[in-house]
Amino acid sequence: MKNKSGFTIVELLIVIVVIAILAAISIVAYNGIQDRGRQSKIRSDIAMFSKAIQAARVQSGDVATRYITNSTGTAEGCVSTASNVDISDKTAAAYCWTQYNAALNAISNSSGINIRNLTDPWGRPYFFDENEKEGAGSCGIGQDVLGVFKLPRIQSDWTTNYYTLVPYVTPGC
Questions:
Q1: What was the pLDDT predicted at 106?
Q2: Can you give the pLDDT at residue 172?
C-alpha cells in the first residue's frame, strides 16, 4: 500500500477560517484608518478656514465676515437644497455651490490665504454661517459657525461633532 500525502478536509477548513479571521481584522483596521483620515482632514480644513476668516477681518479693517462675503448665511444655499439632493453634485446643488464659492473667493481675496475649492472629505461644501451678532445690538460678541453636514444630510442639519466658532468682537466695544 502506498502512503498518500495531502491535506485533510479539516486542515483545509482550519486554514480557510484563519484567513477569514485575518481578512476581517484587516477590513476593520482599514475602515478605522479611513475614518481617522477624514476626521484629520476636517480638523485641518476648519482650522485653515478659521485662520483665513480671521486674516480677512484684519486685512479688511476689523469688519465682520458678513461684510467681506456680502452674506449673513452662506450655508443657507446648501441648507435650503432638498435633503434628497447630493450636495457634492455641483450641478444638482448649483445654488449651494454658487454661494459657497463666492464666500470662499471673497475670504481668499481678503485674507491672502487660498481656501478656494475647500471641500469636506466627501466632496461637499463645509457648513459656513456668517452670523456675527445677528439680533444683537451695535456692540457685542458674535461668531461665525463652521461645520460639516451630517451623512446622510438631512435638510437644515449639520453636525456638532466637527465645528468651530470663530469669535468676532466689534471694534471699539
A1: 95
A2: 55
Residue 39: name the closest of 167, 154, 155, 151 by CA. 151
Q: How far apart are the first and last CA of the chain?
A: 102
* More confident call, 143 vs 157: 143
Nearest-CA neighbor of 173 among 145, 143, 141?
141
Query: What is the 3-state secondary structure of the chain?
Result: CCCCCCCCHHHHHHHHHHHHHHHHHHHHHHHHHHHHHHHHHHHHHHHHHHHHHHHHHHHCCCCCHHHHHCCCCCCHHHHCCCCCCCCCCCCCCHHHHHHHHHHHHHHHHHHCCCCCCCCCCCCCCCEEEECCCCCCCCCCEEEEEEEEECCCCCCCCEEEEEEEEEEEECCCC
In the structure grid, which three cell numbers stand for residue 98, read together? Answer: 454658487
- How far apart are the C-alpha atoms of 144 and 48, rounded to whole Å? 14
The pLDDT tens digits for 57-71 are 889 887 888 889 998
For 171, other C-beta atoms within 10 Å of its C-beta total 11
pLDDT at 80: 81
